[in-house]
Amino acid sequence: MILFEDVSVARGGRGVLEHFSLSLDVGETVALVGASGAGKTTALRLVNRMLEPDAGSVRVDGRDTREWDPIALRRRCGYVLQEIALFPHMTVAENIGLVPRLDGRPLDDGRIAELLDLVGLDSSGFGGRQPLELSGGQRQRVGVARALAADPPVLLMDEPFGALDPVTRSELHDEVRRIQSRVRKTILLVTHDIGEAFALADRVGVLAEGRLVACDAPAALARSSEPQVQRLLRTTSRPDRST
């Protein structure tokens, strides 16, 4: 579904990504971890053509992103941010239905209710609320529902839970795993927290100074002798995905 082929991106004379290659299968969740400036968000933004590579190519659903109409491409890529940026003058239901409405396919009340239920919110009580009436965790759940509203095949998540307290983050990890088991989207997740990556991803890619130094399943990555991987492993606990 997503293919990076020998991608390089430079900014200000510095290589932000260098010879980056990675493929994501349909329905797979891959997390990118690394220090600030490692190139994680740059890789994410290449997928929906917010950035274009200086060398190499990025393909989504078999097509080079430069061949896609940017708006059409972005509507096939749900986007969940750390600062979820719900529109304060819109209700929860209006926020969720925004992208389909812009695309000429407004959602009916039943679909809004289905999406609220999917993210663990009471469909009878939340659709008419304003974003300021919600907790941080509830707003983030609405953000996930909004990203899924147009039924995109790809979901991009950029530090989606970084601003939340540990208990709420853990609850949302459980919700994302449950949602993914039902909808099977191709998810590219960016996070500083390797524990979060281990909790959510089928494979974890470690970036250092713009290069992919390792990419493997969490259990295999935990046994890696790569120095950059070991440094990340020492910075955070790794939750048990079975719980």
Radius of gyration: 18 Å
Through-space gap between termini:
29 Å
Q: Classify the helix fraction into a percent range.
A: 25-40%
- Per DSSP, the total helix count is 11
Tell me, rounded to a whole number, the average pLDDT.
89
Q: Give the overall silhouette.
A: globular
Order of helices and strands: EEEHEEHEHHHHHEHEHEEHH
The amount of beta strand, in percent, is 25-35%
Q: Strand order across the biggest sheet?
A: 6-7-8-3-9-10
Description:
The chain is 37% helix and 26% strand. With 243 residues, the protein is an alpha/beta fold. It has a 6-stranded mixed sheet, with helices on both faces. It has a 4-stranded antiparallel sheet with strand order 2-1-4-5, with helices on one face.
